[in-house]
Amino acid sequence: MKVLIIGRGIVGSVLYHLFKKAGHSVFVIESGFRKFYPTLIHSLLLKDKDIELAIESKKIYRELNIPLINYPSYTIGKIDPKIVDEWVSYNFNVKEKFVDWLNAYAILGEGTDSLVFIKKLVDSVPFFKGVAKIEKGKAIVDNKEVKADVIILSAGAWNSYSVDVKLPLKSYYCWAWVTTNKNPMLDKVIIYDYELGYYSRPLFGLGMNLNIVGDGETIACNPFTKQNGDLKAVEMAKKRLGELKPFIRGEGYCEGTPDMRPLYGRILDNVYIIGGLNGYGAEVGPGLAKLLFEFITKGREEKEYMIDRFQGITDFELGKEPHEL
User: Fold this and answer.
1) Residue 16: pLDDT over 70
2) pTM higher than 0.85 for the full model?
């Protein structure tokens, strides 16, 4: 079977490896519009079915020899006790404690959070550079038709602009800041602060006084529009973490669904979609890619993530990203 994948992000890269391992001919088209950062957060501290996707994603990273570096995490703020009970039911090592240097009670997670080297995953996939669109069920790459038995659209925030079918997806701008700090702990831990509305994580984890701070407002826009993210998350983080000096803004575009949960499924006879990763693709993307692979090759459906759940929805407002507990 000839498989054409449009988009070489997290899910597109994993799909390449899954289909290749199964013996199929796989071709990946990448426009180059997206920026690929060296590392992203992978956390198991999600909720409901997303936890299983995160566990499967971590397994896939390891199978593909993608490095993960574990860091303790501190979750600050009021978390629904049912969510914490769910974490405990998976035997995650979590406990609440007062953290002196944060001056707050937090849920400490050990072995639950990592930085995953996403760029190594993306760089492992051969690709053809070009701008691809799906028109009337046909893949058009740089104005030429490319024939395939299966076409998979995995272009992230560019999905809705790459096919002549209305999709229940909206793109939005997302950003974070690299900051210098005077606290060496910030290069050793991951912090989710739901009281003040920011996250902090190591930049490299090499003992340098550098960390990344993010979680600004959601700005709905198309991915071709230049935006400028503000410093609100950094200002809030200063209240807890002390002096922070932002000097580099990392930015990109994410994609949301009506319920801010990811989706996959068939949109035309031989055309499939996977997307709506809502800012937590590193956590659930590989697991979702495996669901699509099994749907295409075995007919298996995971109803909770199928695109069919959005039938009849023509417009919607973006909500909170699912990892914001």
Assistant:
1) yes
2) yes
